[in-house]
Amino acid sequence: MPLALLALAIGAFGIGTTEFVIMGLLPEIAGDYGVSIPTAGLLVTGYAIGVVIGAPLMTALGTRISRKTMLLLLMGLFVAGNLLSALAPGFGVMLGGRIVASLAHGAFFGIGSVAAADMVAPHKKAGAIATMFTGLTVANVVGVPLGTFIGQAVGWRTTFVLVAVLGLVGLVGIATLVPAVPRPEGTRLRRELTAFRNPQVLLAMAMTVLGFGGVFAAITYIAPMMTQVAGYSADAVTWLLVLFGVGMFLGNLLGGRFADRALMPMLYTALGGLAVVLALFTLTAHNKVAAAASIFLVGALGFATVPPLQKRVLDQAHGAPTLASAVNIGAFNLGNALAAWLGGLVIAAGLGFTAPNWVGALLAAAALVLAVWSAALERRAPASEPASEPAGEPAGAALPAPALVHD
Q: Where, by residue number, does the polypeptide cross the bilayer (predicted)?
């Protein structure tokens, strides 16, 4: 694999750390600013909304410049947002810093996915995407627990300064290692928008929302589920989340490896297995060992869907993958928000802390149904749809997926 993928993985590590570390530092931040925990929770909500909005917005703004230049600008925005959070004198400014940092998130992973896939041979593209996303999964194993520990021991502002430093390291790595490929003539926003005329792109994004939503329906409420149902202590939750992160790491690598060989079978296996594990989690949550194993499997199966789903979007977007890839990253966060809301509804309805697992199982099963439907449609119409071709180009002019257009 090209060394440039390491630079992208470092950037992904920093982004993953800043996204999730906030959950472990909410009490300290709320105490410093004199706000309630629910109010401090807006730092999580604001970040997620920023990702959903920023993914298409920042990618659209970057259609006139090279991908490398845009990646550098995004990492600069990420560094600025984290420094603003670290130095924020009030809660409103802190929230603003979180939103600034989040604007870089979706576009970085979307554009980075395209750049990573472009660096390798066609049969290694999903593996290259998985290598970049390894930074995100390692963040949950190392970055988030370490950042939480530092924030609690030294001060949460120190954590955000260190995350900003990580961003600078990623920025230097991208500047040094990622090849600068000129953007060809004709790469414009209107061309990128043509990808959304392909129903397969929209189906892949819907799979992303539902499949990843299944993961976060359960994981969002893992703390009360493990302490109130499984009988773990509050201190043990951190290590259970590390176990979840290890599952994410391994699932991401396996998903990337096997998606390059058989993409749709990989999706069927991961989504089907995820639905089953989440359904059983309502029972296994009552036993400590079984609950820990379930958490690991939810992370592994959930993240095994990431490389194939991202590659599926790139494949189906044909010659206009960048915006579609970034919007699909926003779809992951939309799934997170949707699942957290639905999980909260069933808990509030008095169905118990294991009820979100049923919600997750249903979401994952729905994603599996969409995957089967998508494959059936593809078998009936294997050729590229004229609607997905850029305006002014004859049918068949698009390169066979996933041969991507350089910027």
A: 38-58, 70-93, 99-121, 133-154, 160-181, 201-224, 236-254, 266-283, 289-309, 330-352, 358-377
Rounded-to-integer distance, Cα 335 and Cα 212, Å: 6
Residue 61 contacts by C-beta under 8 Å, 6 or more apart in sequence?
none
pLDDT at 399 over 80: no
Which H helix or E strand runs over 108? Answer: helix 91-118
Is the predicted pLDDT of residue 384 greater than 70, yes or no? Answer: no
What the block records as the tokens of 369 is 């149904």
Sign for the CA dihedral angle at 137, 142, 147, 148 comes to positive
- Placement of tokens 């359960």 in the chain: 218
Mean pLDDT of the chain: 81
Is the sign of the CA dihedral 224, 42, 248, 372 positive or negative? positive
Q: Is 76 helix (H, G, I), strand (E, B) or coil?
A: helix
Domain 187-385+397-407 coded CATH 3.40.50.300: no
For residue 56, which amino acid is it? P
Report the alpha-carbon distance of residue 315 to residue 310 in Å, rounded: 9
DSSP per-residue string spanning 21-57: HHHHHHHHHHHHHT--HHHHTHHHHHHHHHHHHHHHH
Can you state the angle between helices 125-138 and 91-118, rounded to 10 degrees? 150
Q: Which tokens belong to 254?
A: 């396996």
Domain at 1-183, CATH class: mainly alpha
Amino acid 339: pLDDT: 80
187-385+397-407 shares the fold of 1-183: yes
Which pLDDT value is given to residue 188?
A: 61
The two three-digit tokens of residue 236, written as one number: 């043990």
pLDDT in tens, 198-253: 788 888 889 989 998 898 888 878 878 888 899 988 778 778 888 988 998 899 88
Q: In the chain, what are the domain boundaries?
A: 1-183, 187-385+397-407
pLDDT, one tens digit per residue, over 133-170 is: 788 778 878 888 888 888 888 999 999 999 999 999 99
What b-and-e string marks burial along 227-243, b requiring 16 or more CB atoms within 10 Å of the CB?
Answer: bebbebeeeebeebbbb
